[in-house]
Amino acid sequence: MTDIYPTLAQCAVVATALKLLLFPAYKSTDFEVHRNWLAVTHSLPVKQWYYEATSEWTLDYPPFFAYFEWLLSWPAALADPAMVKIENLGYDSWATVYFQRGSVIVTEILLVFALHQYLKSSPLSHRHASHATVLSILLSPGFLIIDHIHFQYNGFLYGILILSIVLARKQSTMLYSGILFALLLCFKHIYLYLAPAYFAYLLRAFCLDTKSIFRPRYRNTMRLGASIIGVTCVAFGPFFYWKQLGQLKSRLFPFSRGLCHAYWAPNIWAIYSFVDRVLIGVAPRIGLAVNDDALHSVTRGLVGDTHFAVLPEITKEYCFGLTLAFQLITLFKLWFQPDWETFVGAITLCGYASFLFGWHVHEKAILLLLIPFSMLALKDRRHLGAFRPLAVASYLSLFPLLYTAAEFPIKTAYCICWLILFLYVFDRLAPAAVRPRVFLLDRFSFLYITISIPLIVYCSLLHGLLFGDSYEFLPLMFTSTYCALGVVGSWLGFMVVYFTPK
After folding, report:
1. How many distinct structural domains can be found in the chain?
2. pLDDT tens digits, one per residue of 82-133
3. How many beta carbons lie within 10 A of that of residue 282, not counting itself?
4. Of 78, 278, 384, 465, which sees the most CB atoms within 10 A?
5. Are 300 and 260 in contact (CB under 8 A)?
6. What pTM was estimated for this model as a whole?
């Protein structure tokens, strides 16, 4: 294996060296968010963490992540005591930068360990393909852009998710898979989007007899239920005792935010918003009414209600209903075919449904479907027709997160190298499908990727030359809509392969 690829450890070392060089790079408001959380958890007793509001970036992750920030705050206080003072809003000394960026790299060791376990658990016949898969995840432009430049802690969280998926391969370790996923939910609640797949799989494959759904495995059910309740009690027990669960709910689920994030995530609602913008110009000619109050709300979604100028309004209930409906369709196959590959496919499709139809979806949530899909991309050549446009759309949709000129060559060169290298490797390593490749998907994939080149040139260079500072939202709108078409197309392609018998 190592005669074809560098080892996982070698790639981790090289990737770490690159990340160290990026310490002085652009950092978003998320950098201040996490610095503030270090200060809150270090300076205040636990019962005040979810009430503190000196900064606008209040603590809004579940308790285990708050405990994680508390643990980090002690070495942070040694590195720079001013870093953990609540009143030091926007504090970014070099010691703070080094510590926070270094902490992301150190905690990412868990991702490396999880990928190593995934490689060990892979069948020998697929070991080369699995090795390419783990390297593609480790070197993902998503982690580089979101965690190591923009700034977040996704690496170790996805490490927990991957380890949980690996443990779900065998009946003997399914219990630990469920425990790890419960632990993950108590770190970051966005993974609730994937919970239906876990619930259906663990119930069908672990709690019920594989040959008959009418024969429960009482011992397995009790062990799993007790373990999950135990994890939940450890995380939320103190806040239940202090009668703060209502406050936690208001912080974790701020439904007052609009349908779309400030920069439209590339989903169904981005296309819906784009169509609404287009209809503004033609509505009077075809007899459609225009809501004048919505005309000046270009991004429509940073905070407050979302309003459309021509199309009907979308409610939270509508988003929830669509998400749940498409997830239930996915779970139907998993229930009657509870094997590991179907489980990973169900996780991926649950991620697709929540990303495409969810309320106030962030563009960074694209990793929820991209990471599990990467585990299947080499299982069947038919997957590649859906994976390619998703990979291109995913990483291109993250470009607006890094809008400064200094980061443009870094993000562009890195993403292009990753796409060329791993999409080429995937194509060479993927076994021939039992059924022929889907002609339409392959042609859509090729055409879609080709269009990305002029789009990048226009958004990064030509728009400024043509319009200067005017129409500054156009590049964001074009990027988001283009990427949304890619995600929707890949979702439809994946659904075809998922529900087509082998």
Report:
1. 2
2. 999 999 999 999 999 999 999 999 999 999 999 999 999 988 777 788 888 9
3. 10
4. 384
5. yes
6. 0.93
